[in-house]
Amino acid sequence: MPGTNFAQQIAETKNDIDKYVNDHIRSTHNPFADWQELLSGLEVIAEKQLERILASVSDDTRADELTRTIKERRDKLPLRTGYLDGILSTCGLILTFGAAGVALAVGFADKLAALTAAVQHLLYILGVFYAELVLLSLVIIVMYLAQARFRYPFIYLRKIGNAWPWFYYASISDDVSRSLFQLKSVKFRDAGTYAKDLLEFADRCVGETKSQRLRNEIQQYFLLMAYSGYAHQFGLRLANLFIYGLTGAAVSSALLYFVIR
């Protein structure tokens, strides 16, 4: 079986990758180091073994079968965590009602003195509890925005990262302007870049062999699996933060009740 034949080679390649990373990791602290060159050296090591594995599939029928199987598995990958939407929606509601509560409190501030001491204490505890929830919601939203801007390591890889049929990183030139406000000269230049990229993309699509299609499917399948791992862990951290924060707010409010009663 190919898996058995390549087991030793894969182990050696993994050791080579570890050695390369350990030898060059200090260079990443140098602001003048060529980041892309460091990654290119890493890709060369991994791609050699990847090409050997793919070369073992010499039968077109087998290549088609693997391509279909991998595509079916890739389409079933969970790329979103459903509970995260609920947490973000709850945080949004907390912030919305928190703003309304502040306006309400300001409007009725002069009437609070007429309430009994017990009611005042209760309102004070509820206010502290809600303030903690507002702070928790702000922290969660800020962390979510930071995670949304997280730069995944594989997007910097040119050969073994984003597969060109699915991601613009691998098919669109880097020098295309993404500015919201552009001069006509910039748009004209980018139109020329678009035309050139289209020609290269069309050539790739027409010239793609079954072996290359298999590689693209494998590469994209693993990339989405890696992305799914990041998304799940990021979502899990936010969920844990929400649960711990909510529990902490409830406990602190209960302790405050016994302190001021």
Structure characteristics:
261 residues, mainly alpha
Describe this structure in words.
With 261 residues, the protein is mostly helical. It has two domains: 2-80 and 153-238, no CATH class; 90-149 and 241-260. 74% of the residues lie in helices and 0% in strands. It is built from seven helices and no strands. The protein has helices spanning 2-24, 35-55, 60-75, 82-107, 117-148, 184-207, 210-260. The longest helix is centred in the last third of the chain and has 51 residues, at 210-260. It is elongated and about 85 Å long.
The separation of the N and C termini measures 74 Å
Supply the helix-strand structural class. Answer: mainly alpha
User: What's the Cα radius of gyration?
Assistant: 27 Å
Number of strands: 0
Shape: elongated
Order of helices and strands: HHHHHHH
Instruction: Give a quick account of the main beta sheet: strands, pairing sense, barrel closure.
Output: none
The DSSP helix count reads 7
The whole-number mean of residue pLDDT values reads 87
- What share of the residues lie within helices? over 70%
Amount of beta strand:
under 5%
Uncertain runs are none
Write the layout of secondary structure elements.
Layout: H1 2-24, H2 35-55, H3 60-75, H4 82-107, H5 117-148, H6 184-207, H7 210-260
Helix pairs in contact: 1-2, 3-7, 4-5, 5-7
Summarize the structure.
It contains seven helices and no strands. The chain has 261 residues and is mainly alpha-helical.
